[in-house]
Amino acid sequence: MTKLAIVVPCYNEQEVLPVTNEELTGLLNVLRDEGSVSGDSFIMYVDDGSSDKTWELISGYANDSDNVRGLKLAANVGHQNALLAGLMTVKDEVDAAISIDADLQDDISVINDMLTKFKEGCDIVYGVRSARKTDTFFKRFTAQGFYKLMKRMGVKSVYNHADFRLMSSRALDGLSQFKERNLFLRGIVPTIGYRSDCVYYERKARTAGESKYPFGKMLSFAFDGITSFSVKPMSYIMGTGVCMIILAIAFAIYALHSYITGNVVSGWTSIVLSLWFIGGLLLFSVGVVGQYIGKIYLEVKERPRYIVEERTGNGSEN
């Protein structure tokens, strides 16, 4: 029988966590009664350095139930690192792990479908949104643009998939071999290469609390994903530089022709605009290259991706 861990990264989720725990424990009980998972399956909450009462709630749930555990990180390290911390903590004692966000906008009713596909031989099962009816037009437009841009940049990703997925113990072992500090799990997991499949669902509205991914953070997340998996931006910079050189040669020929024919018109505006354009292009190009150099800088220092401060629940060592 499958021993399952449901890994839930949490950051300041005190408002939504009571509902989340009730729904997940109820689901786990149903799965256990149906024989889909073993009796020692559990939920692993990962507190990503929350400043509210998230850890107090997790500790309480763990004390009340043998099927709830908690992992408290010493500092806020970001959603991807917190998720990885939970997965790496459970990987050696479970047959499969499912990751899901604490807001439960992802439909937990498809977890049984994930388990079915796992038992059929899939090592990775992606939860994929079938529609974006709950999103605003702006969110829908930017999300679709994000996935299209990732594909154009050559990044392997699953369209309309976030971090709701099932991974077998073998897939988790494969994930543990990726040592980079700049984590983008949506790009890493598809590169593992084991047999995979998808289940489809409609995402629900958030029941409480606020989104931890405002537009600015989403933009930064997208840029990190691109620079972590593709060097095409630097290729585009080189291509732009070649185009600028060709354009400069054309302007030089035109200026020489104008001088010879005596048709010289002074125009400081065009010169100033050209200088500003080229200067802006150079600064942007240096910035993109700097992002890659910065990532190399972070990687070579080999600092820990997370530090565990405390554990709670059955089988933990406090």
What is the level 1 CATH name of the largest domain?
A: Alpha Beta
Mean pLDDT: 82
Strand order of the largest sheet: 7-5-6-4-1-2-3-8
**Poorly predicted ranges:** none
Helix content: 40-55%
Question: Based on CA inertia axes, which overall geometry fits?
Answer: elongated
The CA-CA distance between the termini, in Å, is 29 Å
Order of helices and strands: EHEHEHEHEHEHHEHHHE
Largest sheet: 8 strands, mixed
The tally of strands reads 8
Oligomer: single chain
Question: From the coordinates shown, what is the CATH architecture of the largest domain?
Answer: Alpha-Beta Complex
What's the CATH H-level homologous superfamily of the largest domain? Spore Coat Polysaccharide Biosynthesis Protein SpsA, Chain A
CATH topology of the largest domain: Spore Coat Polysaccharide Biosynthesis Protein SpsA, Chain A
Radius of gyration: 25 Å
Strand content: 15-25%
Alpha-beta classification: alpha/beta
Number of domains: 2
Total of helices: 10
